[in-house]
């Protein structure tokens, strides 16, 4: 009986949480840049690079062709051992906006810090070297900031398309994370963001230095969000496909698991109550099937509880993903969501527990 009551409470909490995300997403207005608007905000793009020789040419070519050109580009080379530095130097001769910096310290968080310290723009934009932004990426950002002054802008990210089953599930899972962060921000409770497409003012970053947890290898994005939120800063989600960047999906399950473990490893350092509560609800409802299966051998009626919880969660998750499918160009939502529902509890429990046991030592 106690487990049945626990299942009911967790399911209700999860229903409330996802409902908040759905309402927040629907309440966030779509935004498109106005090409006729006179906006002149200098942007500093800061990109940490470590062994990115296969991605840099495409990224830099894309940045050189942006519809908005009032920006400086700071590439921070984090002790790469491949041809990263040489490629940057080659392109630098024809791309005057680019500045190459060799990181003194180690790690992505340190590379970002060293790059931001050299930035001269009032608006800082961060992305990853394996991302590809849209043609109107920067234009969308400056127009949004001009119309909606913000201390931090959460911008959309999606994974590149692939026909493989593994990539499809990654795309769906990643879209759910980004959409959850967007919905939470739309509901005035920002909890998630991604440094692959993040915008913030230089002033907001400077006032947040003491809250960035430099002892943690990752988490520069979430810790910055938490600090700005704690200070009462303005945080918004830019709901525009023009502001989207496309990131590479993981090639292997091991690579995917390593990335998610790195994300989860910073969880003990979270201080924001809304984020902690969200994390606990998601982890608990993922752990619940294992508790029900284990106990059902002693109480057969718990099999029915397990079926009800699984079905309810699947329908709720699918409804949420269906509401964001057009924006993220998702296909086969109901089928892929069912398959993800079968795998997700194993994945989330494995990642959560392994991240607590040992933290990844490198970001690449």
Question: Could you describe the 3D structure shown?
Answer:
Strand 2 (71-77), helix 3 (84-92) and strand 3 (98-102) form a beta-alpha-beta unit. The model has no long low-confidence stretch (mean pLDDT 90). The strands form two sheets. The chain has a seven-stranded mixed β-sheet, sandwiched between helices. A three-stranded mixed β-sheet has the order 5-10-7. It has two domains: 2-24 and 272-355; 30-251, Spore Coat Polysaccharide Biosynthesis Protein SpsA, Chain A (Alpha-Beta Complex), CATH 3.90.550. The chain is built from twelve helices and ten strands. The protein has 364 residues and is an alpha/beta fold. The protein has helices spanning 2-27, 56-64, 84-92, 108-118, 137-147, 165-186, 202-206, 220-230, 253-264, 273-296, 302-328, 333-357; strands at 43-49, 71-77, 98-102, 123-127, 132-133, 152-154, 157-159, 197-201, 235-237, 245-247. The longest helix is centred in the last third of the chain and has 27 residues, at 302-328. The chain starts with a helix and ends in a 7-residue tail after the last helix.
